[in-house]
Design brief:
Length: 309
């Protein structure tokens, strides 16, 4: 089944890049829009490699102000300007992100060709709302102020039953479309047909959760409930549990426990320490706890088709 939503891992390293892994950045390409979670150095090269484009409607959600998660912004701004982008760019993040963007504009000698709208997040909850989806944020347990994000699509109308529409005398064409989109229609004979007469129950949208850097927490378990995809920090293996806690990170087993308790459908581990040239150990540790798990690699692409349930 073709899907209108792809998750593309642009950078999967933790703290420093490696020959195989760039710094943290996850792209969600949804219909005509690009949504970035974190913006590590060199992100524009990764975007070129992945073919995600620079002229789409774009939002960037930064989890926290550690350099590996936001130092890609200056380069991204410059590349977009050199490509004559005109469309507004939206940037979201914790307190301090606006001062950083302002400093870029004031000190880096290039001319922006597009407006940048910066939103600082002060509280948990809905931080961005569009017609078809919302982005929620919650505070993560890290060594500095850090956010986790969830992209949650709004419910869609139920399945349209053609036979029922025909039996009610609704002519094929624009009236079918209006019913499919949840509007009542008036027939030529004066009868009114309600959407619920021809539609099944509402169908849920998709939910993607990105933790950024964080220790395990009950807040995140609740935040990630029933996620279709949980993208979780797994910087250190289980044998380095104390180191993970000290540095504000998680291990594979901890990420898997969160996925299990949250009833997530799919877990992907990211923010991988440079010490793991082969991530098999991380994968094996997580799979002992949660069955459907992968370790992210740069340019890995995931398709998430809509559920008909």
């Amino acid at each position: 089944m073709l899907t209108d939503l792809h998750v593309i891992f642009l950078g999967t390293a933790g703290s420093i890049p490696t020959p195989q892994r760039s710094l943290p950045a996850v792209a969600i390409r949804r219909k005509g829009e690009l949504i970035l979670f974190d913006c590590g150095e060199g992100v524009q090269r990764q975007m070129i490699q992945a073919g995600v484009g620079f002229h789409r409607k774009t939002k960037v959600f930064v989890t926290h102000l550690h350099g590996d998660h936001m130092l890609g912004l200056p380069g991204l701004f410059q590349t977009m300007s050199l490509l004559d982008r005109e469309r507004k760019l939206e940037v979201y993040g914790p307190s301090g992100i606006k001062a950083f963007v302002d400093a870029i504009e004031q000190t880096v000698q290039f001319t922006l060709t597009f407006p940048i709208e910066v939103s600082e997040i002060k509280n948990s909850g809905v931080v961005c709302e569009e017609k078809e989806y919302e982005v929620h944020a919650t505070w993560a347990d890290h060594v500095t102020h850090s956010l986790a994000y969830a992209l949650i699509e709004k419910p869609r109308p139920g399945k349209f039953h053609v036979d029922m529409a025909k039996s009610l005398g609704v002519p094929e064409g624009p009236l079918w479309s209006r019913l499919q989109h949840g509007s009542a229609v008036k027939l030529p004979d004066g009868r009114v047909v309600m959407p619920e007469e021809v539609l099944g129950p509402p169908r849920s949208g998709r939910k993607i959760v990105y933790t950024g850097d964080m220790r395990p927490s009950k807040i995140l378990i609740k935040f990630a409930q029933n996620a279709d995809l949980l993208i979780h920090d797994a910087t250190f293996d289980d044998q380095l549990l104390e180191r993970a806690h000290e540095d504000g990170h998680s291990t594979p087993s901890q990420a898997a426990e969160t996925a299990k308790k949250a009833r997530a459908k799919w877990l992907v581990l990211t923010h991988i320490s440079a010490r793991y040239k082969d991530p098999t150990l991380l994968l094996e540790q997580a799979k002992k706890v949660f069955p459907r798990v992968d370790v992210a690699e740069d340019f890995m692409k995931i398709e998430l088709p809509l559920s008909e349930a």
